[in-house]
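Q: Structure for this?
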Amino acid sequence: MDKNSPIPPRDDNYSDTESAWAVDVRDAATRGMTQKASRKWWLAITLLSLMVLAGVYAWYYQLKHGMASAGYNDQAFWAVYIADVIAFIGVSYGGAVISAILRLTGQSWRAPLTRIAEGMALATVIVGAMFIFPHLGRPERFMNIVYYANWSSPLVWDFLAILTYTVATIIFFYIPLIPDLAIVNRHLGSANSPMRRKVYSALSLNWMGTKRQRRLLHSSLTLISLVIIPLAVSVHSVLSWAFALTSRPGWAETVFPPYFVIAALYSGTALVIVTAAAFRSGYKLQRFITQRHFVRIGYLMAALGLVYLYLTFADMATEGYTGITTGWITQTVTGRYAIPFWIYVLFGELIPIVVVAFKKFRNIKGLTFAAGGVVVALWIKRLVIVLPPATQPLIGSFWGSYHFTWVSITITLAGVAAVPLILMVMFRLIPILSIEEMEEAGPIGSIEQISDKTEKYQDKLLAGGRNLEQVKTKTPSSGLQMSGVDPIGLASAPTISVNPTVNPGGFSINPGEIR
Amino acid sequence: MRLITKIVSGFALVAMASAVSLSSGSLPAWAASGTTSGSSMQMGSGNSSGFSTAAANSSDLSLGAVLTKAGSDQLTLSVTPSSEASANPAVVKSLAGQVVTFYVKTKVFSGDGMMAIGTATTNAAGVATLNYMPTWTGMTDFAAQMAATSSMPQMSTSLNFDVLKDPTGIPTKYFESQRPLHGIATVLVKFLIGIAAAVWLILLGTLAVVLFRMPRLGRSQ
């Protein structure tokens, strides 16, 4: 087998169209790796690096001057950093689980998004875990959680769950990368530096694309996908128990585990939209990541948003009705935390629902705006979950208070900056698209996501009485498998040929070629 | 009557369990407070001038503590007039109906600090009582402060009390048995550790299989 062949052989025979598609995918996926970094890229990297460095300095300042420099006091003993931990690990969960669920359910349209979603999951879980250190105040005691583990404490389980989840995310990110690194090595050829070739070659584990290798890849990915979903659920359940197992009103809530899990999924879905929009624009991936991707994830985001709204209502209504410990509810809805709470309601619930509900707004810009709002609003919501119960007095009537300082703001912004920084550097080193998965889906598997003309054709098919059925069809010309739900009945059309040269800006269907 | 009994029993317990330190004047003077052992109450030092002799002065208050047996480690802190003050009805009258703020001395990040733990109003006998659940054991400093009024100066008193794990003689197991899931904790922990181990086994096992088998499957083509 020639390791220098431009496209590694597949088990299926490639048609010319599919070969062209594969080359296009590889070009797009490796564009960030081969092209010289633009000024804008360097400017962004410099700015983000400065923000991260500022955060490191702020942490040093905090270590030197104590937690009070970050606005903490004996009444607001938990505040912004724990909200950061929950928010960042939450969005990570969203990225990983969405990728895992779509993988398990065989949604071939996911292919252009998986690498971005998994990369985002990896970057955010690393940054989220880092926030535990400023939250600790005395980070040199961190290892005491291992040396003197109290297994009755949710904090020990938090540590274990986050560690396990981080390892799972790394494995989940690495395994789909194996074939892509081999493909990149061959695709780039001498354009790749010798050092990079060596590293890619080692990491690609002699990938030749054989049947048995593919089988091993798929079975291991399925297994990891199956593990990562309950694992992520457990991470957020345990994180919530760090609050819910205390005796603080507003934290000791039975609804907290699902509340945290749904919030994580919701914010994670939103961040997948934001990240996809940013890299789609920055890496010119408009041809592969289309409005349909955004709309589909947008539906998912809106559905999760409604569930989260319901859980918020259920949480507040139960305690509000009994009136036993309602101080934190009053403070949240009408008191000192009312402004952040209603910002959450507006940007975290109303706007996304409106954007998804009305076709006029249901486009990439609208959905990206709504998703950005959700990410910020859900972070604010985490603060609203943390602060009112923390500052509520258990004895007496003195409400504590928390005030942001430059230290806590700088450290939080450093975390925010670190995520795009990691992703931008990451996608200079590895392909931004999951090449193997996209080739496997092929132009036919991806056809419903490609062009508006496709949609019109699909409408025609629907008007012609094609039904919406679950299909698993082997198309005769390509030998490619298309599986899963086919909502537009494309599979009922025997074969669709796609000619990428007709419309270089996007694949289009030539009705004359429909056989 | 019940209150007096509680106070008296409290003082008795305090006398057995702790050394008592008392202070007067403003709270920042905490470090200067004197310490007396073997007594449940002690007159504070210092006096203030410019008030009528019948009015209370800063030495008229003392703080006592008792651990109640109400099925918890609850501590009852009581501020009472000193024996001399109690003998003077005019002083007792002036002490009645006043708001007393209780404090506990705690470490706040870089140093010691006073944390307010609640307020109570003195009754007709000039006694103010607050229930408090200590969150740590060992020698603990408490303080109480009565704000100045037109007829008397600001008064404060303090107490150094040894909060024991089981000062009431109630076995620790009693408290543990109050938890509904008591008894399954050990099993639950083992079960959860088992699940965590299984997850790690699947993750690392899968990675190991991929790392070792993948290159071989490529060569065998």
